[in-house]
Amino acid sequence: LVAANLVLANEGVLDGFGHVSMRHPENPERYLISRSTAPASVTRDGLVECTLDSEMVDPNAPASYLERYIHGAIYKARPDVNCVVHSHSPTVIPFANSKTPLRAMGHVSGFLAGHVPVFDIKDQFGPTDMLVKNNDHGDALAQCLGDRPVALMRGHGNVVTGPSIQISVHRAIYTEVSARQQLQAQALEGPITYIDEAEGEQCNEMIAATSERPWKLWKKKVGMG
Ligand code: MN
Q: How far, in Å, from the CA of 2 to the mean position of ligand 1?
């Protein structure tokens, strides 16, 4: 989990904001996340344990992020998810704010094939500071995500989920990369041909079988390989 934070900061997905969590390996009703700090500064000692209602298990532990409700709500709704990334991944925001859906550009972003939902907090909660800072916000976001791996958040960022840390980190990195490629393709002569759902499924199997290789490289680049 520490490596995931450092890797996503190093790859330009997380900056001073954003966070990664993992479901507790021994207790599926809890998750692990850092105390509130920039992802590049996360340490093993700074990890804290939360319930799926995002209450701190140890009331004396340093406070975690204001938006940790994102994580608890998704773990509650999605037993298949073991790692959640929330970022403000810069190239994704235009797709969250416009009518152009985010699509899968390449085989490594095959998980985006099909529908990428967009969560607009205003729909249910009116004007806010856009933050997901209670369980009602978190549950609404999880409902919008449904059974998909990624949801965009209008005016804010995105959430990326997966069955493991390696897969979620891969998806968070390639959500950003694919968004950049889609904007580039839109400057060229169309129509653009995307990875379709049948291709996406096969690409996802390929990625699941090879996720260790890029993960090792990304860890090495932050001195953890
Ligand atoms: Mn946020």
A: 19
Query: Rounded to the nearest whole angstrom, what is the distance from the C-alpha of residue 166 to the centroid of ligand 1?
Result: 21
User: How far apart (Å, rounded) are the C-alpha atoms in residues 103 and 114?
Assistant: 8
CA 52–ligand 1 middle distance (angstroms): 18
- The pLDDT assigned to 182 comes to 98
For residue 201, indicate whether it is catalytic. Answer: no
Q: What is the pLDDT of residue 14?
A: 97
Q: Which residues pair with 160 in a beta bridge?
A: 85, 150
- Put simply, whether the predicted model's pTM sits higher than 0.90 gets the answer yes
| Model pLDDT, residue 138 | 98
> Of the candidates 139, 140, 145, 134, which has an alpha carbon nearest to the alpha carbon of residue 171?
145
Kindly state the helix (H) or strand (E) to which residue 8 belongs, with its residue range: helix 2-10
Among 11, 26, 49, 67, the active-site one is: 67
